[in-house]
Amino acid sequence: MSSMRTMLTSIGLVGVVCVGYGMWAIISPGEERKREMLKNLPEANPVRMEESRKRNALMMQVLKDAAETNDNIARGIGSQK
């Protein structure tokens, strides 16, 4: 009886995995849709990419300055003694 239960459980598990894979295959976008999505990414636009690089460089500079100071800059300007 135990072996029958093990077999049914295994078959059920394989069935659930197959159903999940089938649903994923149906829902996933096709090749043309993937190409269209890649065209619309921010990295595809050179101007937008350059803006992102500048913003990242500014943020890194702010973080570097914050790491080099002993002041708690999170408290704001008014709390300095």
Report low-confidence residues grouped into runs of 5 or more. Answer: none
The helix-and-strand class reads mainly alpha
Helicity, as a percent range: over 70%
Number of strands: 0
Radius of gyration, Cα only, in angstroms? 27 Å
* Succession of helices and strands: HHH
Distance between the termini: 79 Å
What is the residue-averaged pLDDT?
85
Q: Given the C-alpha coordinates, what overall shape results? A: elongated
Count of individual helical segments: 3
Strand content: under 5%
Largest sheet: none
What does this structure look like?
There is one protein chain. The protein is an all-alpha fold. 72% of the residues lie in helices and 0% in strands. The protein is built from three helices and no strands. It has helices at 2-27, 31-39, 46-68. It is elongated and about 75 Å long. The relative contact order is 0.05.
